[in-house]
């Protein structure tokens, strides 16, 4: 019987986003395979997390494409982006908390591309006068990541209704980022 790698990754992501300390045995069980089969595909937890990182990057890039960042006002693009990324938010929250992804000198080039695209969105919003210029695009990008992770955790813990995810993140982020007349 062939093992569907995507199914294994998505099963692992679903489990690890709820229980980040899950063992490889628990991951195998969640995927409906043996531990030996899991290890044939992923030599250990680090290899599994790296594969999840690649999945997370692909999900983010797809969300960025779907959000059409260069169309219309930047605030509308932020709204579209949060909506497009919502299905992957729990996986991103898990990855955001995985320190090993950020150890050493090298950051995965995929995260750099994503950072650049999101920061570019905030830079465009600043250039158009829509967003405050005293908050750097890098800071606004990190704030968005933090809100996405916090929102995903709050939804998974049942403290926030999933239907409110997009609204709460967008309103809090834009409430602080939008330029207001003084």
- What level of helicity do the residues show? 55-70%
Main sheet properties: none
Low-confidence stretches: none
Annotation, overall tally of beta strands: 0
Note the total helix count: 9
User: Which series of helices and strands comes N to C?
Assistant: HHHHHHHHH
The whole-angstrom Rg is: 18 Å
Strand content: under 5%
Q: What overall form do the CA principal axes indicate?
A: elongated
Structural class: mainly alpha
Report a brief summary of the structure.
With 182 residues, this protein is an all-alpha fold. The chain is built from nine helices and no strands.
Describe the structure.
- Helix 2 crosses helix 3, helix 4 runs parallel beside helix 7 and helix 6 packs across helix 8.
- It contains 9 helices and no strands.
- The relative contact order is 0.12.
- The chain is mostly helical and 182 residues long.
- Helices cover 68% and strands 0% of the residues.
- The mean pLDDT is 89.
Write the layout of secondary structure elements.
Blueprint: H1 5-18, H2 24-31, H3 35-41, H4 45-66, H5 74-85, H6 89-97, H7 109-127, H8 137-156, H9 165-177
For the structure shown, list the relevant keywords.
single chain; 182 residues; mainly alpha
């Amino acid at each position: 019987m062939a093992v569907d790698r995507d199914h294994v990754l998505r099963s692992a992501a679903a489990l690890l986003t709820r229980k980040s300390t899950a063992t490889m045995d628990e991951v195998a069980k969640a995927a409906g395979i043996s531990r030996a089969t899991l290890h044939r595909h992923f030599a250990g937890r680090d290899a599994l997390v790296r594969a999840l990182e690649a999945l997370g990057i692909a999900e983010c890039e797809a969300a960025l494409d779907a959000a059409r960042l260069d169309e219309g006002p930047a605030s509308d693009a932020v709204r579209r982006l949060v909506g497009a990324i919502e299905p992957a938010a729990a996986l991103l929250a898990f990855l955001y908390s995985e320190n090993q992804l950020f150890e050493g000198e090298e950051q995965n080039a995929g995260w750099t591309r994503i950072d650049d695209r999101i920061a570019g969105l905030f830079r465009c919003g600043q250039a158009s006068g829509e967003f405050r210029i005293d908050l750097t695009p890098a800071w606004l990008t990190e704030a968005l990541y933090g809100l996405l992770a916090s929102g995903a955790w709050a939804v998974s813990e049942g403290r926030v209704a999933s239907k409110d995810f997009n609204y709460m993140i967008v309103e809090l982020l834009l409430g602080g980022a939008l330029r207001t007349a003084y």
